[in-house]
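ok so I'm stuck.
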Amino acid sequence: MHFLAFLAELTVRALVLGAIGMSAVWAMRRSSADRQHAIWRLVLMGMVVLPFLMLFLPPLRLLPTRATTIAENVVTSIQHSSYVPTGVGADKVRPALPISDFPEPRSRRWWPAIYAAIAGLLLLRTVRAVACAKKLARESRPIRRSSVDIAHLRHELRESDAVKIPFTVGWSDHVIVLPQGWRLWDAFKLQSVLAHEIAHIRRADWVTSVVAGLNRSVFWFHPLAWWLERRLNTLAEDACDESAIRSTGDPLRYAKVVLEFARAAARQQPVMGTAMARSSDVCRRVDRIMDGRVVVKSAIPGFAGVLMVLLAAPIMYGVAALELIPEARQMQSGRSVYTIEEHRDLHQQLLRDGWNLKPDEVVKLESQLASNPQNLDARRKLLSYYTQQVIAEPRATYLLWLIEHHPDADLFRLGSLVTQTFANYTGLNTPQTEERARTLWLNHVERFPMNTRILSNAAMALSGSDVRVSLDLIKRARAVEPNEAHWSNWLGSVYARAVRTVFASGLLGFSGRSTVPSTWFPMLGLRLPESEILKSELETSTDSVLLRATGEALVRDTEAIEPFIRESGFPMASRLAEAASSLAFGKQLISRAQELDSKKPAGNN
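replied:
not stuck anymore, here's the structure
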């Protein structure tokens, strides 16, 4: 996923999280500020961990990711992230690797740097504010406990002539800093201040405030992060007002204390701490107290807090992992099975487009592609040109980009040399290119397990290197679209080829396409041991559709090739024996398919 796409998805998921929090707060709108603050604090924690959950949690799909109407003997399970098949040839199939970074359009390359620069500046600002508050508390003077008439006070008290209003700082060793003139306060004012600040400590508002600042720095592009920081500060002050009023029992006198500190706050620079009063918010707080809207219920008990976290955990998992748009539909294209005629015409056109290019036209297409990487027509022509001119670069770069960004492109369905990535006699592909392409294809089929076009393209692309993986992808495509005859015919041709290879003792050779009338797809170069495994599967299979498709392919192949063998002048006995055995086996499979169909209940054929 590209950086901008990740940020866009992160923005949407954070909005969903905020909407859930807003709904919960609305449902508890008559409850105390303490309870509402707890809800928004859970939303804050959710935003902080959301990017990590999105990266590491498996996707949560509400819809099934594979069809279950095909018999289980047809579907071979692939563990996408670490695919290692068993049996013959397993040592040749490598597990999928993480997707490598490929060149992005120039317009996108600056976005991570721009994001990091802004986030870095905001983080630096937050860290500096925290450091200044800690320094201010550290440079203040300690107050002897005997000077304060509150026996239960367990936190450190300090005084400073640099502050006008009380505030609290500290992660674990909390410090309450009072203005220098605190000794002139009456007992009620001192009790109100200490009750307010102790409430901040009990509720860990200092930690919440710092985390909210860091969250705002990371999510600087998201309005929710800025609003959430302000809302948490507001609710924290309201909750501490409620706690202080419970302690003092006199809302009117307490409102006067808040108003006095608000006047002092107007003459002081803001401090990164939980301050007693902020001039910008004092009117609302005083009106709230005077109007009797302060809920003086007790704080949230420990059990209720634990219960809220337990309820939030599955919600957080759903927000982070739920597929907002089913992956199978994020790259959905119309289905179009190539006919032999379409394939021949399109392939010839592809080759002509590249072969006829003049040097100045190549330069022009390169310029168009540089300014618009999504120009697939220019990319197709350049790929054809560089392939036929045997120029490995930039062909490999262009082809890998196309695989990464458009794995469902029709171009891959041609199975042309233009889009081949496995190392062969041409020298166009290095082992590194082959490995990168393979990695991309396997990651695509993991992301889009229901997109048969991508499954088909991946099967074609890997047919020259990882034939067992390619075969499993065809099986998965058939499982997704069990009523599409194309997949059964493709599988039937592959199995038929395997049967003939066994009867030919591995000396059958290689044929580039199937013999299914009016269709085209590549054959898989299965070795003799792998072919024996497939033939054994057929001998025990109860999948009548596959048996019939394989049997019909064997009958067509042998009936077409036997006259050619006899008329060639070299009627080798071994080749005639192979054809006869394959024909008999094919007819046997068709007979078994008919027998299995006859045993099925009416309407299930």
